[in-house]
Each structure stands twice: as structure tokens, then as C-alpha cells.
Amino acid sequence: MAKEILDKIRDTRPGFADAQAGTAETLRNQARQGCFKNAHRTFQQGIQCVQLNSVNTLYSIQDSVMIIHAPYGCSACASRGIINLDVKKHHIGDTSDISSHLMSTALGEKEVILGGEKRLEDTARQAIDRYHPKILFIVSSCASAIIGDDIDAVAERLQAEFPEQVFVPVHCEGFKSRNHATGYDLALSAIHNYIIKDAKPEKKKGLINLFATHSLSMKDQEEMKRLLKLIGLEVRILPYFATYEELLEIPAAEYNVSVCQIFGDEYMEFLHQKYGTPYTVSCMPIGIKSTDFWLRSIAKLCGKEKEAEEVIAKERAAVQEEIAVIRKKTEGLTACITAGTGRGLAAATIIEDYGIKLLCIHTPYYEESYVDAFERLEEHHGSEYIINVADMQPFEQINLLKKLKPDLFIGMANWASRLGIPTTHILDGKRPTFGYRGVLYLGRKLEDALDNNNFNRKLKDYTELPFRDEWYDEDAFKYIEFPEV
Ligand code: SF4
């Protein structure tokens, strides 16, 4: 079957880097002058798997089974998705049984030597027998791709045998790309190639697709819907908990918008080319500046600028007083941030709301299309903050933290907390972090981390840091080979 969208990887986007470091000004100047290049890490601790993001994008789709064609280990993180599903269903008051399921083909030595296609077909038959799903996602892995299992051919054979079901192969083996956000694109392309195909539904007035990642809490989804409703827009958040019928309607939307600059941008461009659907890519609505920017960009797209300005003024006014109270404690402090690109940039605007200065941001990727967003941070944080482009390199992170000695660390704090620094995070799959109300929730979290730092102080006193002392005297970027500029 001819694919509507061919698999693309994000590594080839202009100015892509997953290994770089420097001040905001240095990287910005290089990018603007067209001489920014990716560097090379001669040692790295880890890298996130592409497959995981494809799994995360698809696992909540209703009436589906996801078959992970892989050894058991590749499903370890995916199994967490099922817990998330339970939590999210609870939050929306849905007490029905889970209608999406994960299965693994559990490839072993025998399948790796002799091929795993038969195991995959048997697993699909079991899935249909047990759950009678409408959609079966077949997700590849490093092992199944290396041994050359043809998941497209398996899907075609199964499709002929089970015409009531829809089989969706997703080529998202972990090594496919150095940019794990590629996994999002591959998942959205697979939805289009195998479910929507070349359908051309009538445009539906008032239908707006909001493409969003799995990591959002239900509270954050509700907050986005609430803010957009205030300016007169109703959105359908996708592909979260989407039904088969809702997926079919994706091309019928009047507008496409997204939750951040990383998710759905490639797919929205495709929808624009094929169906003429206008779209906008902005940022994650965390922190006042980012929420303003997100809301204004959607309002501009849909002709609701006036309504947006009224909502912004009202919503801002409602939180100013409490922000000012918290700010008395936080003004003038310094912070380092580690997070995914969209959330990290947004985190840098939330600390701005509380008068905190950014010393360093660890972001998995840098590319030309993010330069403006990093530059906007310079208005408050100056141009000297360090950008460490690092997808999961905590050895660089802890070295920098020890040298920079921030008052606060925002991110996954497993090691940072052993330095005794107050730590917190903004990746909250259960509570509200988005919009103007989220600014207050996160402000209270920052305040709480600063007021209650005993646990981290005890960790500092009674645990050891993960590396020998010598490492902390070294240049944090010792293992990055920088290209000649
Ligand atoms: S698909 Fe590859 S990178 Fe991903 S978990 Fe499996 S082995 Fe690891």
C-alpha cells in the first residue's frame, strides 16, 4: 500500500544538534550566521529510545492493542503507560474497563536467530481472541529491525485474515534516530498511513485538532480547553484517548494547533500541504510569558485576537497577587533546569515569573527552529546562561551543578538532590501546571522545595556522589569534541 507520509527522521532538520554546549549568545550567533554544527560526544551515558515515544503517542487510543515486537526489556517503560492510563481514566471519572492494551512478543534467542514473524502473527491472533480490538498497532524494535522481520508484510497477511480489524505497523526501532521526538512523528504518520489513508472528509466547521503528548495531566488538558473555550474555541485533544472515528476526522478540522514546538509540527505541515488546514506551532503554555505566547498564536490563527487579549488580562490579574507573595521569597535566586526541549523552555519562563535567574539549561536538542525561543529567554535571563545540549548525560549535568551552585534545580533530581540543592520538577502527569493557574501551582512547588530542603541536605551528608572527585574538577564538556566554526 502506498504510504501517504514517508518515515522521516528529525536528525536532518536544519541546525539539528544533540551534542553541543555554550552560552545562549554563542549558540544563537552561530545559528544565525549559519555556522552552527553538531558536535560529537566521545563518551555518553544514555540516549532515549525512539520507540518509547511512538508507544507513548499511541497507547491510549481507544479499542486498540499495541503489540511491541521486541524482547521483554523494550516494554519495560511502556508498561508504565498502562498505569498512566488508569490514573487518567480515574481523573476523567471513567470507571469502565481499560479499552487499550499492551502486549509483547517477548523475542528470545530462538526468534532472533530464526526470525520472529510467526511469533508476531500468533500474538496478534491472541490479541484479537482476547480483546477483539478495532486497531492493532505493531511496533518494531531494535531487535526485530536488525533481524529483518517484515512487520509490513505481517500486517498485510493479518489484514487479509481479519478484515474487521485495522493493522498499523509502526517502524520506530530505537536506533532509527538520535532525536527521540522522531517517535512522535512516526506514530502520527502511521495513524495517517493506515487509518486515515487517502480519505478526504468534508471540513467540519468549528473542529480544531490540538495535538498533545502523553505526558500531560488531565488537569492540564482541561486547562487548555478552558482557556480556549474562553476565547470561543472548542478543541479536540489528540491522539489522547481518541476513538477510531475521531482519528478518521483529523483531516476534517478547520485548524490544527499543538501543545508545544516538538509535537505534531511535521504532521500539521503535512495536513496543511494535503488538506490546506492552517496551523500554528508555538510553545508549551507553562509560565505567564509562554501561556500568553501560546494563546496569542492560536487566537491569531483563528481570528480571536481581541478575545484573547481580554482573557489574558483577566487571567493574569487573577494570579498576580499570589505570585507577588511567593516572589518575595524567590526574587534574585538562581536555578538550573533539565527537561525536554518544550518543557525546559517553558520552565525557564516560569522561573522568570518568580524573579529567578537561569544559570544553565540542559536540553536534549537544539535546532534552528528553537533559536527564537531561546533568544526570548535572554530578555530576562541575559545572554550568558549555558545551554548544554544533552540527551540524558547526567555526568555533565552534575559536574555543572557542582560548579554553578544554583539555589534551585528543576528537573529529575536523582543526583542533583545529593548535592543538597533544593530540587523540584515541572513534569507532573497528575496535577495542573498549564496556564495562569498552573503558574500558582508551580510557584507553590518552588516555594515548598526552598522551604523544605532537609531531605536533600541529609542526602548530601549521608550519601556519596556518583563519580570520583576528580571528575568534578574536569571541564563538564571534556567529552564533547567541538567542530571548527
Ligand atoms: S527498541 Fe532498542 S533502544 Fe528501544 S528499548 Fe528496545 S533495545 Fe532499547
Can you give a write-up of this model?
This protein is an alpha/beta fold and 485 residues long. Among the domains are: 50-196, Nitrogenase molybdenum iron protein domain (Rossmann fold); 319-479, Rossmann fold (3-Layer(aba) Sandwich). It contains 19 helices and 16 strands. A six-stranded mixed beta sheet has the order 1-13-12-11-14-15, with helices on both faces. Helix 12 runs antiparallel to helix 13 and helix 13 (305-330) runs parallel beside helix 17 (435-451). The site of iron/sulfur cluster (SF4) has 8 residues, from loops.
Characteristic key phrases:
485 residues; 6-stranded mixed β-sheet; alpha/beta; Rossmann fold; 13% strand; 4-stranded parallel β-sheet; single chain; binds iron/sulfur cluster
Briefly, what is this?
By secondary structure, this protein is an alpha/beta fold. The protein has 19 helices and 16 strands. The chain starts with 18 loop residues before the first strand and ends with a strand.
Number of helices: 19
Which distinct ligands sit in these coordinates? iron/sulfur cluster
Uncertain segments of ≥5 residues (pLDDT<50)? none
- SS-derived structural category: alpha/beta
Distance between the termini: 45 Å
Q: DSSP strand (E) fraction?
A: 5-15%
Under the CATH scheme, the architecture of the domain at 319-479 is 3-Layer(aba) Sandwich
The CATH topology name of the domain at 319-479 reads: Rossmann fold
Overall geometry comes to globular
Counting DSSP E segments of at least 2 residues, the number of strands comes to 16
Estimate percent helicity. 40-55%
Radius of gyration, CA atoms, in whole angstroms: 23 Å
Note the main sheet.
6 strands, mixed
Order of the strands making up the biggest sheet: 1-13-12-11-14-15
